[in-house]
Amino acid sequence: MQWRELEQQPCSVSRTLSVIGDRWTLLILRDCFLRVRRFDDFQARLGIGRPILADRLQKLVDNFVLTKVAYQQHPTRYEYRLTPKGLDLYPVIMSIVHWGDVHMSGKKGRPLLHRHATCGHHFDPVQVCSECAEPLDPRQVQVDLGPGAADAAHMPVDPPKPRRVGRSPAGLVEASRRTRR
Fold first, then answer.
1. pLDDT in tens, 65-95
2. How many CA atoms lie within 13 A of 59 on its CB side?
3. What burial class does residue 27 get, using C-beta atoms within 10 Å of its C-beta: 0-12 exposed, 13-18 middle, 19+ buried?
C-alpha cells in the first residue's frame, strides 16, 4: 500500500494516519494543545524547516483540523487554531503522552504533568467504555464489522478464545462468544 492510498482504505486507523501520521504533524498537534499558534513559534520550538512546517500546517488546515485566523494586518499574519475536529484529537495525543510517560520518561520522571482545572489534580488519561464507564482493557474488547466495512480485511486474525468466568456444578461457564455480521 502506498502512503497516498491510506485515506482510501476502509479502516479508521489508515484514514487517520493519512492526516496525522508523520512525526512533524504529531509534534505540531502536541504544540497546538500547548497553545502554540503562530508559525514562527512552531518553527522555533520544533527546529523544523519552513517548507516542511508550511506543508504540514496546510495539510491540517485542508483537513479541517486547524483553521487559519488573521491576528495582524499589514502584513497579514495568521495563527493556527484547533477546530472542533482538531480538539477531538486530544485523547490521541494524551494517549501518546501517557505511553511516553510510562515507558520513555527515564529515572527523572515525567517531563510535564497535566492538571485538571476543574478539580485541581494531576491526572493520567484513562479510556473508559462510553456505555458503562469501566476502564478499557484491550484483552476485553471484541471487534465486530460496522456498517462502513467493505470486507473483513481488518478483523482480528484469530477469533478470541472463550474466556471462563465462573464455576457451576457442571464446570466453568463460557463468558464470551464472538459473532461476525
1. 999 999 999 999 999 999 999 999 999 999 9
2. 19
3. middle
